Amino acid sequence: MSHRNRLPVIQDAPGEAVGAGTSRRDFLRNAAAGAVLAAVAGCKPEAVVEELQRRHLSELSPERLQSMLGKLEKKWSAKYGKEVTVSAKGPMPGVNFAYGLDLSRCIGCRRCVYACVKENNQSRKNPQIQWIRVLQMDKEHGVALQHATPYYDPEKVPEAGHFYMPVQCQQCRHPPCTKVCPVKATWKEPDGIVVIDYDWCIGCRCCTAACPYGARKFNWAEPNLPAAEMNPVTDYLGNRPRPMGVVEKCTFCLQRTRSGRYPACVEICPVGARKFGNLLDPESEIRQVMDRKRVFVFKEELATEPQFYFFYAT
Amino acid sequence: MAFGEFLQGAAKQVVTGGKAYKAWVALLVVMIGIGLVGYSRQWNQGLLATNMRDQVTWAFYIGNFTFLVGVAAAAVLLVVPAYVYHWKPIKEVVVLGELLAISALIMCMMFILVDMGRPDRLTHIMPGPGSPNWPQSMLSWDAMVLNLYLILNLVVVLHILYRAYRGKEYAKLFVVPLVLFSIPAAVGIHTVTAFLYAGMAARPYWNAGILAPKFIASAFCSGPAVMIILFQVLRKTTAIEIKDEAIWKVAELMAYAMFFNLFLLGAEIFKEYYSRTEHLLYTQYLWQGIGNNRALVPFAWFSLFCSVMATIIFVVPAGRRNWVTLNIGAVLIFAGVYIEKGMGLVIPGMTPDTLGEIYEYRPSAVEWMVAIGVFGVGALVFTTLVNVAVPIMTGTLRAKGAPVTPLGAEAGH
After folding, report:
1. Which of B112, B124, B353 sits opposite A214 (nearest CB)?
2. Predicted model pTM
3. Beta pairing, strands A308-311 & A97-102
4. I want to staple B131 with a disulfide (CB 3.0 to 4.6 A). Which of A15, A59, A184, A314 is the partner?
């Protein structure tokens, strides 16, 4: 199911646009269709032609992909007034990422939520999009969603009688979201990360309906990303700016983690509740957690087999 | 060319009609205008103009879509006896059933289109330029079977009407296999649509084996209800002859479907309330509300009232033979199923959401406007198609020099 196995992988940040090998006939056909569409929709013909010439990511040649990334870099550098890089790094061999979250440590401060928003260029307001949702739970009920709320707002956390459970994409081994996608715009990569091609998504929201963890967020309007706050170091399948009308979600900060860095939420957590690493590396943090602690996964009855583990360290 | 002449004749017929016809078409055009205003607002603002949010990610549009798939599938109810058993009284009106299916399918596709975040990327779902996710994604299957069913109905209807226009009986060897195929196709469109929901383990309210049978049962209630009223209108306003027995036969078939639909509903409610697991919440939200969140409760009970009343009327033979009670029953069951299969299916599936949050959804003004527009388009398509088909079927619209024999009047059955 990992279409990414057939994907052109580009290791370095792409440079200038390389000619995209389209035949003349293809061009004429697409141009004619594009002109008709543009006349109907009242948009710029070049944009429509480009849209029509686009094929699924797995069908793009490395040159074509590179030229596409180059164009995006140019477009966003101009739009945000800074040098934006868009990589398409691809998974590293011998890596399978997993996450650990220590429920006994989490204090519900939501610093992870905002670090994530900042790192991953989410829309700030109208619509406000956050990939991490911290649920406040009652100690007397345990992990019970009927008694959970994400809308707690006390002076100080943690509050007596409560504990906190942050939820984000669980990077399932059997992702229900990729299965339902009608256009293969989302898939699981060999390193365990479920990704979305935001430029292929049609916005039908089947995946949002299928996800048991509320992890998938839809761009209900044009994303609102102030230029000053824009993080210019991006990956095509990760934190690059998204268009209106498509779905997005946590990618384990693949633009960082595929270069050996921690996800932003792990880095910011003030109590060290968040652990991250390579499952295939016996020395990794996540393997240490799994060897020494008892872990569980969220909604295990659905057999999604998350690569996101919860545990109680103390 | 002969077919070109047929199209010309049909086009002329589209604009031919009395005052009532023109007033009706004008009303539909106004509805479409309202829809366009609504959709242009949505186009500019994005789906934020609706009241859908991440918690309730599908709503009014998808509810209407689901309901209309049922209406489209119900054409099969008329096709089966007409073609398979050569049951004469219904045969004359099968064309009308297929025209209804065509109009319903067009509305279905429009409701999907207006619900899409990126309708400009529609080609991504097509084989060739796109990458349909077969066989895994139910929506990619749904897109395929809906289009197939639309083409099937178009071909059959066009063939029958064209032959009648030329004064000839339709080609049996061509039509019968297609019609036989359209029976599993009709069941197919509704089953695949049910699977779209039933396959989602994240939504316990939908994740039930009973869903597909329930879809079929309720489709056999709502689709024919439209036909029953339409038949009466047409035989009053046009020269078309529709026998009482034909209408009563349809009503009888509906009675079985309604009873079965209520039985399935009862079976579901028993299972939820008796076992009382955490999955009860969604059913509870629909029928009782959760805390102060009771948006759907009056609709749920109104829908149940409509369905029960209609079933009583239709199950009693005297009830379905009396024109007044028959029409009341048809309206009641249409309303009942519209709520049950629309909002009553989609919204509780997502309330509470997967993390337990309750977001009370009500359609926004833009959603109402767009839906009015889509129904306007569907009704306009249906009206013009019927306006062309009826004179051909009665023999008043004919090619020059073609023998004037009404459709279905030929010997042979």
Report:
1. B353
2. 0.91
3. parallel
4. A184
Residue B74 in domain: yes
Q: Least CA distance to A245: which residue of chain B? A: B117
Alpha-carbon span A291 to B334, nearest angstrom = 60
Quick one: pLDDT band at residue B152, thresholds 50, 70, 90? very high
C-alpha distance from B317 to closest chain A C-alpha (Å): 43
Coil, helix or strand for A313? coil
Is A203 part of the contact surface with chain B (CB cutoff 8 Å)?
A: yes
Indicate if A77 and A118 belong to the same structural domain: no
Number of domains chain A is built from: 2
Check whether residue A37 and residue A76 sit in a common domain: yes
* Nearest beta carbon to residue B202 from set A184, A185, A302: A302
Share of chain B above pLDDT 90, in %: 71
State which of A60, A87, A114 marks the end of a domain: A87
| A158 plus A236 within the same structural domain | yes
**pLDDT of residue B390 exceeding 60:** yes
Are the beta carbons of A184 and B201 separated by less than 8 Å? no
Would you say residue B320 lies in a domain?
A: yes
Position B84 scores a pLDDT of 64
- Among B118, B142, B282, pick the best mutation site for testing chain A contact (most A Cβ within 10 A): B118
Is the pLDDT at B91 greater than 70? The verdict is no
Residue A62's domain comprises: 3-87
- Are A51 and B124 an interchain contact pair (Cβ–Cβ within 8 Å)? no
Cβ contact B47–A184 (<8 Å): no
Same domain, A113 and A81: no
- Spatial CA neighbour of B226 closest among B51, B12, B45, B71: B71
Alpha helices, H only, B342-395: 343-350, 365-394
Q: Give the residue from chain A lying closest to B279, CA to CA.
A: A146
Q: What is the DSSP letter of B290?
A: B
Task: Search chain A and give the residue with CA nearest B114.
Answer: A204
Contacts of B119 in chain A (CB under 8 A): 202
- Asked which of A39, A58, A87 is the last residue of a domain, the reply is A87
Which residues in chain B have Cβ-Cβ distances shorter than 8 Å to A208? 54, 57
What CATH number is given to the structural domain containing B195? 1.20.1630.10
> In which band, very low, low, confident or very high, does the pLDDT at A147 lie, cut at 50, 70 and 90?
very high
Backbone angles phi, psi at B119, to 5 degrees: -60, -20
The ipTM assigned to this model is 0.93
Q: Say if residue A162 is in the same domain as residue A115.
A: yes
| pLDDT score of B90 | 67
Identify whether residues A159 and A260 lie together within a single domain.
yes
Count structural domains, chain B. Answer: 1
| Judgement on whether residues A58 and A153 belong to the same structural domain of the protein | no
Cα(B125)–Cα(B140) distance, integer angstroms: 7
Q: What is the C-alpha to C-alpha distance for residues B370 and B73, in angstroms, rounded to an integer?
A: 23
Task: Note whether B137 contacts A180, CB cutoff 8 Å.
Answer: yes
Report the percent of chain A where pLDDT is more than 90. Answer: 81
Among A159, A98, A115, A23, which residue's Cα sits nearest to residue A310?
Answer: A98
Helix residue ranges, H only, B135-171 = 138-165
Decide if A150 touches B, using CB distance below 8 A: yes
Pairing mode, if any, of strands A133-138 and A162-167? antiparallel
State the angle between helix axes of B280-287 and B343-350 in degrees (0 to 180), rounded to the nearest 10: 130
Cα–Cα dist B13/B95, whole Å: 17
Residues of the domain holding B119: 15-394
Residues of B in contact with A184 (CB under 8 A): 131-133
Contact present, A62 and A81 (Cβ < 8 Å): no
Tell me the C-alpha distance between B353 and B359, whole Å.
8
Contacts B122 to A, Cβ<8 Å:
202
Contact A180 B352 (CB under 8 A): no
